[in-house]
Structures are given as C-alpha cells and as structure tokens.
Amino acid sequence: MRLVVDLTRCQGYGQCAFAAPDVFRMHGNEGLLYEGNPDDAQREEVVRAAASCPVRAILLDEGVPGPGPAVESRQAVQRVVVVGASLAGLRAAHALRREGFSGSVTVIGDEPHEPYDRVALSKNVLTGRVPAQRTALPGSAGLDAEWLLDQRATGLDRRAKHVVLADGRTVDFDRVLIATGVRARRWPRADEAALDGVFTVRTRDDAAGLRQWLAAEPARVLVIGAGFIGSEVASDCRELDLPVTVVERGPTPLAGALGAAMGRVAADLQREHGVDLRCGVSVEELEGDGRGRVCRARLSDGSTLDVDVAVVALGAERNVEWLDGAGLAAGRWGVACDAGCRAFDVDGVVTDDVFVAGDVARFPHPLYDYQLLALEHWGNAVDQAEIAAHNMVSPTADRWAHLALPVFWSTQFGTEIKSIGVPTFADEVVLAQGSPATRRFVAAYGRRGRITAAVAFDQGMWLEFYGRLIEQAAPFPPDFPAVDAPRTRRPVPAEIHQHALPHQATVVLTGHAPSERRAVFVRD
Fold first, then answer.
1. DSSP character for 203?
2. Which PANTHER family match (predicted)?
3. Taking Cα atoms as reference points, which of 181, 180, 179, 177 lies closest to residue 81?
4. CA–CA separation, 369 and 455 (whole Å)
5. Structure confidence by residue, pLDDT tens digits, 56-106
6. For residue 291, is pLDDT > 80?
7. Which residue from 65, 57, 122 is spatially nearest to 379, judged by alpha carbons?
8. Were 379 and a residue from 8, 102, 392, 427 both cysteine, which residue would form a disulfide, CB within 3.0 to 4.6 Å?
9. H/E element holding 166?
C-alpha cells in the first residue's frame, strides 16, 4: 500500500505513532517520519492510524475515486496534457477525474519513475530508514491516464496545440498543464561537479546514490549551502554520527527563507548537535585525488577541508528551457500566471489553454501586494494543481483563484520548523510565544504594521491561529494574551536580504498599432 502525510496539516499529536509504530515515528517533539510504502500486512494498523489522526493529515492509496458529474464546458475540452510526472502533475490528474472530466489525460515525465515523494528523500532515505524505491506517491495506480515516463518535453507549440518530445513525437492537447518543477543547481565547474562523491539532492536517484556513500561512513561530509535542504542533510549526517561541515556564504543558516534574526537560532541548533558550521565563507574549489574522487575543498578564507563527500545545496533552477520559443512569460524566475493558474504570454496577456502549477509557477497573491511569488512547497503544489485542474475544465464564471496561504515545514536536528505566510515579505519579526532558548517558540513577522507570516519551532499547532491573523491583516506586533507570551513583544529587524531577480532577458517592444504591438525577449 502507499500513503503520504500532509505535513502542512500535521500538528505532531503522534496518535499515528501509537497506532502503527512500525510505519510512523515521532522525531523530536513534533517531527513525524513515516514509511510511505508499507507492507500490505500493516494495512489494518495504517488504516487505524489514519482514522485516529485529529487533523486527517494521512492520505491513503485506497484506489482511484470514481468520476464526478460530467463537465459541461463552454469550450470542448477532450485532451489534457500534463507535462511533469510530479506531485503537482499527479494531483492535477486526480482532480481532473474528480471534476468529471472524461476525456484523455496524458502525463509526461522525464524520469523513468512514477511520481514519488521528494520530501522523503532528505528526511528518510539518506538515513537509510526508507529505501529510495519505496517513496512512490499514492494515487498513480489505477488512475485513468496515459503515462509517458522517461520522455523529455522539448517544446510547446501553442498555435498547433501540441507538446514536442525529445524523440520527435508530438502530443496534441486542448489544455496543457506545465508542472515541470525545478532541478537542483549543480556545482558551477563541470569538472569538479563530475568528481565521484559530489552530489545534489533532488531526485530519487540522487538520494539513492548519496545514501550509498553515507552508509560507507565517510570521514567527513561537506555540505555547501545552509538552506533547508543543506540543513536537513547536515541533520541526517549527525543522526548517522558522521562528521559534517556546513559552509554558508550568508550570515546564518536559513537566512534566505527566514531572515538572519531567526537564522541565528538555527545556527545555534546546528552547533549544539555537533555541526562544524562556517558562515560568511564560501567554497572556491573542489579538488580530486587523481583517481576522480573528491578529497579536498578550498574555502574563501584560505582554509582547506579534507572531505570524502560533498553535497551541493545551492538552491534550485526552474525547468523552463523547453518553453523557449513558446511565447510565454517564462524565464529563470519561473512561468508567470494569474491567480487562476493560467499562464501569461510574453505580452502579459493571459492564455486560456496553458496552465501552470507547482514549483515552476510564479503567481500573484493579494495579501502580498500582488507580487508574483514562486514557492517550492509541498502544499502549494497540491493546492495549485487542484485549482488548475478545476479551471481547465470549468466555465469562466466557475473558475477558482489560488489564494491559500503558503505553508512549509522542515524537520532537522529533532526540531520541527514550520512557517505560514511569506516571511521574506516582512521587514520585522517579534517573539510572540515561547522561548528560543528552549527551542519551542513562535515568531511573528510583520510589514507596515500588519502581520504577514509566522514561524514555529516545535509549536506547529499554533500556525492555524496565526494563519487567521494573517488573513485578517491583523496588527503587528500581535497583542493577545498567552501563558507563554514574553513580557514584552518588541519587534526587531528580520534581517532579510532582498535578492534581485536573476538577470536573464531584456524585453523590447515592437510595432506601432495596438494590433501590432508585441513584447520580445532579447537574450544576452
């Protein structure tokens, strides 16, 4: 059987760990680890665990639900193509059938594997708790869809309405969903990236390969980058009792996502668990040993490190190259779309037959000044996919907007870090509840006197409350009684570095009459 836990909803009650201890395990106070593909012999315990979950966060693969009522659309939609056999792609295909869509659904994926749970890779696979091949997501078996796996999309012809594959074949569509996600940013020097022992962590194969090297008990692991993936890999190494050095050119771990003020708490957490954390430093070179294996790293402060494994955790790049020439507003920042997941073309005009969902999407949110957000979060992929599927087969008057608050989580060093809202939109942060010294607290983020986000360390059950404050544009700093509230709630700068968008293209305008005016990308 297969299962997945919506950890954006999980509040760490641990009832599932009592009901099915061989499948679910609490990690620290609130972190939950689980086996996504347990044996069928454990089905009864797993079903009991799902029923006992107070927030219904456990989703089981109990077969594909029957179709909903037939869709009556003003436009004939008979063929839907989903490019990306990902979490977003799978959920969109499911949602189409629930909506009553009876036409063809084709899912194209560039990996040979059916959709799998990427969350499990850095949380379960690297420690050896779960094999990489047992991370498949529930729901693909029995789904009425054509799967074109190990097939890379290389182009999108909007006029002919087909997707071009690497082998030259084309797949026709009436509606197409772009759900190609992101890939790990590789080490910039190709010869150094090719050394044995140098890894990224994004795909199932990445995790399986790195797991083999960690199981060999290397003398030291180097993690380059202290974002969420880098920090989780470091946590895995310490759980395996492996020496690990984390090199981060920013001021603290997680500074890019939470700001340096909260990042200092994360830094203390890492050092308390034995991580050799070096901030304000970068890796300038990876050296091989003459046999093609990494053996040393040279740092910007002039020091060197002898290492057996190097994990590159420098963020992600969006998979948009295949859209070159498609006339869409797509670039290194992602594919721009409206709140209904409809892609914008290069002129900024919304399309009616091209939709976007998941990590590759860039969409406006009214709570954040309608800025276009690009979010690499599990919950965002699920929500956007279901909204895109609904809108693809619904009349204009019945379409939905993607207005959910972003939520993400990370389990590291026995602590569950959860966030709701967009911390990077804020300029101030305040301790709202608890104490950083105990590693159990909630920090609220604000901008212009309104609360915009909240981050919890082992206090996940409070996020729903803070989510309501964010939705109501409640005043910042928050002012409500709580038994664990500090004496004073005094905001401090969040210390969030505002990254400029990566420069990739210049846009020029052509033509004179309104019918002729066009925007054109000029690539440097």
1. S
2. APOPTOSIS-INDUCING FACTOR 1, RIESKE DOMAIN-CONTAINING PROTEIN-RELATED
3. 177
4. 21
5. 788 887 554 555 555 444 457 999 999 999 999 999 999 999 999 999 999
6. yes
7. 57
8. 8
9. none
